[in-house]
Amino acid sequence: MVTDGEQFTAGQVVRVTGVSFRQLDHWTWSGFLPPSKGTRGDLLGTGHARRYSFEDLVRIRAVGELRRQGVPLQVIRTALDRLQLDTADPLRTLKLVAIGGDVFVCRNREELERATDGQMAFTVLDLGAVLRQLEGRIAQLRPPTSAPLGEPQAARSVPAAAG
Length: 163
Description:
Layout lengths: L9 H8 L3 H10 L6 E2 L11 E2 L2 H15 L4 H13 L9 E5 L2 E5 L2 H8 L6 E4 H15 L22
Helix pairs in contact: 1-6, 3-6
């Protein structure tokens, strides 16, 4: 389980989301998907002090998956804008549907059916599945008994020597 406020380095983001470091760096510098965390608000530098939230990881993974499926970047920008409007909805229930130049954010099966009615070619991205995949990959990054990534581990007590 990912904790609130947990932060991820650029290297962890690359391993967990499957996007290349070069792509992540480009999205950061262009302002398309900047990290929401860092030591200074204006710091977007390569590697150092860039910190990403779990919500950032979801967006990065979603954009990467939509790009792999051939969805144009302008359509993806529209999808991200729509997701910003739906921040009150839990991401686990949302699905993105890209049809041509339009993007629909669907909260349930009825909205999904309405959005795709009569359409022959469309792309659906289940954000709940993306969340579950990311949580699983983050769990694999952690040592078996570690604190969440980005948090210091508690000091271990050493048993006293018998003597």
